[in-house]
Amino acid sequence: MAALGGTLALAGCAPMSHEEAQEKRKADAAGGASAGMATTSIGEGMGKHGTFTVEVSANDGGISWKHDLMQFGGHNIKRSIIPITHSGSEMTTKLTDRAKAIDAITLIDNTQATELVTDSTGKVVGVKVKNPVTGEEAEVKCKAVVLATGGFGSNVDMRVKYNFEMDDKILSTDSVAAQGDGIVMAEKIGAGTIDMEYIQTYPVCDPETGALLYVGDVRLENYGVLVNKEGDRFVQELDRRGVIVKADTLDEVAQAQGVDAEELKKTVDAWNRYCADGKDPDFGYSVEMNTIEEGPYYLMACKPAVHYAMGGLHITPKAEVLTVDAQVIPGLYAAGEVAGHKMGTNRLGSCSMTDIYTFGRIAGKNAASYAK
Predict the structure, then answer these.
(1) Which CATH number fits domain 214-301: 3.90.660.10, 3.90.700.10, 3.40.250.10, 1.25.40.10?
(2) Which residues contact 343 (CB under 8 A, 6 or more apart)?
(3) Can you tell me the distance from the alpha carbon of 45 to that of 194, in angstroms, rounded to the nearest whole number?
């Protein structure tokens, strides 16, 4: 059977041993812009536990995954899976329902964490919270805290603080809630951060809103190419990381989008020859190649938008948050995008879900053990 482990949670596209699958995943993670950083013990831990993460999410969480593998950006083989509904709600809704069904868990809505509380020794012993609707404030006492507050992709000031290129000219695919609040709270009690300057953009986004353009996404469907205004290909469409016009001819669709029609036709002709040869000499297209033949044709405007922050709180492989001096902060853990140094400088596509589930489990397990 195919070996498991890896990205959105499942890796391996051909019969191979678990060790072979892990080596291929590590090679992809270390390649390109990652510059080997994702081969740290933290990054390796994410791949190592990916298989079990999927099994737990399906068996205990009730999440249904599609059985066919997909190849996302930066991967050289198919190893990613997606929810059966093609939607994140398959995960969030079912896991929320699962949590509500457990008597020992209390979910509190309309409550914003504003400050971490520590004792005289520096241990985290609580969280100050505020109801944004009523303004009511309170303090929740506890023995351990797990931060799972996400990244800072929608906080332009924070982006520019660490990477001046990521200014307000670049939109974001992220929720407006991705403000880096958890990072700021932890910094106030001495937590250290790492890799904050590495901010990833997704290449196929709506030019007006920044929203992901999964419909017609050439990176996922493998039935199109990316061209510039001159009508030329300029990138490997599945490399690391709108407006749609439909027309019966390439001339018409090019004119509607302001693209050089003659050059576009040359590009399509060249692409079809590459498909016939089974090889892309220009950029090394890495997935199934499909010709672009008779119309109608669709030409979609897109541009990159901020999608993911590789940087965040500095953690250990046990998800413990470290101080600026690399000392463990007792009682504080972090999981997901709020924690950094797991993805290198440019994460592989679909790895964020693996990160969330894997380090969520690791953080929860170790926090519970610490709190006993």
Answers:
(1) 3.90.700.10
(2) 29, 34, 38, 43, 308, 310, 351, 355
(3) 18
Helix or strand (DSSP H, E) at 300: strand 297-301
pLDDT digits (tens, 9 = 90+) for 135-191: 999 999 999 999 999 999 999 999 999 999 999 999 898 889 999 999 999 999 999
Between CA 209 and CA 215, with CA 211 as vertex, the angle to 5 degrees is 125
CATH topology of domain 105-202+306-371: FAD/NAD(P)-binding domain (3.50.50)
What is the rounded CA–CA span in Å between residue 70 and residue 48? 19
Give the contacts of 172 (CB within 8 A, at least 6 positions apart): 153, 154, 178, 210, 305, 306, 307
Nearest to 177 by CA among 148, 149, 199: 149
Sign of CA dihedral 173, 177, 182, 183: positive
Q: What is the pLDDT of residue 23?
A: 63
Task: Examine residue 132 and say whether the peptide bond preceding it is cis (omega within 30 degrees of 0).
Answer: no
Structure-token pair, residue 283: 């950029």
Query: Which residues are known catalytic residues?
Result: 241
| 0.85 exceeded by pTM | no
Residue 13, pLDDT above cutoff 50: no
